[in-house]
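Module 6 notes. Inverse folding takes a fixed backbone as the condition and produces residue identities as the prediction. Think of it as a translation problem where the source language is geometry and the target language is the twenty amino acids. Below is one complete input and output pair. Work through it position by position during the lab.
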């Protein structure tokens, strides 16, 4: 079999059925090139065409017949109730056809290839598919070798070691063998915490799914720095909430998301979901990880409402009192490097979102200021903004204009916007 007839896939499912279809669709939604091998020329297999679906359709007809024949027990008088077998079979065929069409639609939408034939695992990473029953090499579906980890030869763990023989995580499987570390005699091996494993998996998947691009812009925050300094004591005394920079930034981000809805969207196969509500995730650093609670309906909140929501979510995140629903459903995210003094960064997109705003530290710098008498150099409070975005949907022009919009809102901020 020539190499030209080989086809590369990330995931190959042999003899799919309902569970296999779900797995294939989910793999496709995660951006993996996926194929299913079906022996029958009809999608759905035994379950759809000869098993549970036709049986349920026939039982549905039988149930209706039973109810009609015994309707008099509940006051419904029926006469001459008969069974039309031909019509019953036509009804069953319509149910099967409708389900088959639905499966075909989902496969096409999520770019799942359907290979008709009998699949055989020839060796790890290689699946042969026979379309005639004789020619086992008629079609070849071979997994990408760089997606399959080759086991390292390491000493077998002691019998008392917990987790011995446990399968590697997806993050570990993505690392080719030659890049795995070689333990030294003084090295100490510790298992990742559940949170760290989840973060690792999400970051790796996000990089696989989205075409990450980043753009940067500097903002003169002097007006907001002075306003915050003048108002923070009174703001805390009046409202019981600390006045931080985050509500200013989130308010500007909401304005930009309204102006550029592509940044408040998600990619679903060949479709784009434009979210009408703005739910902003706020990355909160914990002692041993990171969590992203969501400020829901940020576009409907006042400045004070944003300040209250931000303080409440951050406090409950650090005290581990968040509810599951409070870390789900975000449509855009913000991460803050300023807390640790970093000037900027290129954050990883929080799936299934398409953009994340990074906030750098505010520091005093010499800055060219335009005045009535010309340009002058002054000491200003400057902050770096970064936007990581998914180039599948957001182009460079849109990303740059989004950041520029945030910049203009922040630099023009005055006390009336806090009302």
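Target side of the pair, the amino acids:
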């Amino acid at each position: 079999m020539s190499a030209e007839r080989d086809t590369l896939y990330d995931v190959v499912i042999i003899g799919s059925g309902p569970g296999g279809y779900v797995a294939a669709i989910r793999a496709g939604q995660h951006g993996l090139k996926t194929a299913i091998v079906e022996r029958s020329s009809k999608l759905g297999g035994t379950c759809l065409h000869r098993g549970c679906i036709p049986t349920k359709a026939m039982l549905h007809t039988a149930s209706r017949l039973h109810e009609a024949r015994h309707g008099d027990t509940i006051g419904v008088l029926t006469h001459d109730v008969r069974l039309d077998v031909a019509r019953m079979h036509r009804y069953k065929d319509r149910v099967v056809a409708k389900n088959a069409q639905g499966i075909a639609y989902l496969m096409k939408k999520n770019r799942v290839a359907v290979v008709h034939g009998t699949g055989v695992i020839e060796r790890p990473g290689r699946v042969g598919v026979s379309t005639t029953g004789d020619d086992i090499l008629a079609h070849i579906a071979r997994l990408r070798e760089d997606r399959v980890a080759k086991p390292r030869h390491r000493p077998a763990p002691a019998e008392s070691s917990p987790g011995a023989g446990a399968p590697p995580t997806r993050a570990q499987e993505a690392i080719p063998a030659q890049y795995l570390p070689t333990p030294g005699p003084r090295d100490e091996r510790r298992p990742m915490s559940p949170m760290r494993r989840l973060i690792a998996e999400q970051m790796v998947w996000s990089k696989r799914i989205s075409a990450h691009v980043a753009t940067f812009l500097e903002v003169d925050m002097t007006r907001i720095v002075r306003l915050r300094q003048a108002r923070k004591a009174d703001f805390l005394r009046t409202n019981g909430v600390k006045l931080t920079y985050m509500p200013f930034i989130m308010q500007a981000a909401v304005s930009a998301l309204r102006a550029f809805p592509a940044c408040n969207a998600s990619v679903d196969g060949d479709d784009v979901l434009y979210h009408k509500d703005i739910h902003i995730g706020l990355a909160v650093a914990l002692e041993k990880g990171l969590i992203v609670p969501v400020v829901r309906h940020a576009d409907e909140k006042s400045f004070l409402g944003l300040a209250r929501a931000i303080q409440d979510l951050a406090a409950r995140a650090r005290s581990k009192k968040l509810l599951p629903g409070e870390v789900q459903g975000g449509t855009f995210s913000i991460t803050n490097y300023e807390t640790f003094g970093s000037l900027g960064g290129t954050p990883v997109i929080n799936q299934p979102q398409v953009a994340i705003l990074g906030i750098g530290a505010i520091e005093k710098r010499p800055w060219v200021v335009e005045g009535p008498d010309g340009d002058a150099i002054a000491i200003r409070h400057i902050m770096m903004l970064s936007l990581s975005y998914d180039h599948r949907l957001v182009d460079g022009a849109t990303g740059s204009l989004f950041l520029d919009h945030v910049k203009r809102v922040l630099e023009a901020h005055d006390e009336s916007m806090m009302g």
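Reference fact for the lab report: The chain is about 35% helix and 25% strand.
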